[in-house]
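From: lab user (bench 3)
To: helpdesk
Subject: output format question, protein + heme C

Hello, I'm new to running complex predictions and I'm not sure whether the block I got back is the full result or only part of it. Here's what I submitted:
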Amino acid sequence: MSRIPYLSVFAVLPLVLLSACSIPNGQPQKGSEPVAPNQVVDFGTLYAQNCAACHGAEGRGGASIALANPVYLAIVDENAVHNVVANGVRETSMPAFAESAGGLLTDEQINVITSGMFSRWGRKGIIDGTNPPSYAAKTTGDATRGEIAFGKYCASCHGSEGHGGSKGSAISNDSFLALVSDQGLRTIVITGRPELGAPDWRGNVPGKAMSDQEVTDVVAWLASRRVQSPGQPYSASNYTEHDHSEHPHSEQMEK
Ligand code: HEC
Ligand code: HEC
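Helpdesk reply: Thanks, we reran it on our side. This is the complete output you should expect:
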């Protein structure tokens, strides 16, 4: 007796599903017309299609940093973000998205993404009353001082010399450093990776925030550990890189 209603649910279910699929009978619903890719101006769609693979769904982080990090968004300005999204970060996997740089997004779309990041994920006042290091380095770092700062602020988690420790992975090895820019390192040191439990500039040593200069010096020390040709002993680009950064375009400009 009690089995009959139970079975009847299964008898009716396929019919319900079928009828749900057959309505509205091939007619496009209102608003379902396809939009040309360069006409998409919805933040969620643009972010999901272009950024989520590396920066995580909803900006929560993935292979690369979480963008939904209010401390990050309080320290960086919109122009800097727009510029990175438009032009990418050379020698890292951060792509250039602007049409002018070979990407597929219009300037308007990049504006939607940039301003959307700040309006959705920023939090006003989050670093009020603190004295954060500047987003971009103001001085040249000193690697020797940086090594000392590393011992003080980083080694507890990343191990002495950054070879990896109980709480943090190896960050001074050439294959990691080859894939991250100096600004990328600076950003992580200042803003942390809260999504992975990495502290921001205030939290490495409780009660002792890093100074702007200490951040700059730590990055200089990490950068000094880069080798010329990680995994590619004879790559020509690795030989010329250093000279160019000190005398940008000197040959071309001499004439
Ligand atoms: C293929 C992976 C990949 C994709 C896709 C990607 N990013 Fe990135 N992004 C990176 C990496 C790696 C970095 C760090 C680069 C570095 O070392 O400076 C980065 C850095 C950034 C930064 C700069 C962080 C800083 O240091 O200030 C921003 C902003 C950013 N990405 C935004 C975006 C947005 C917005 C999108 C989508 C339109 C996007 N990214 C798509 C990999 C990616
Ligand atoms: C309280 C522990 C702790 C301290 C102190 C700490 N970190 Fe981290 N750090 C982490 C954790 C956890 C992660 C995320 C997991 C990982 O990649 O190791 C991380 C990630 C990183 C990353 C990104 C690694 C990657 O694979 O993307 C860098 C770079 C980094 N830390 C640099 C530093 C530097 C430089 C210092 C000192 C100024 C420092 N950290 C201090 C815990 C710490």
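A quick orientation on your result: The longest helix spans residues 3-22. Let us know if anything else is unclear.
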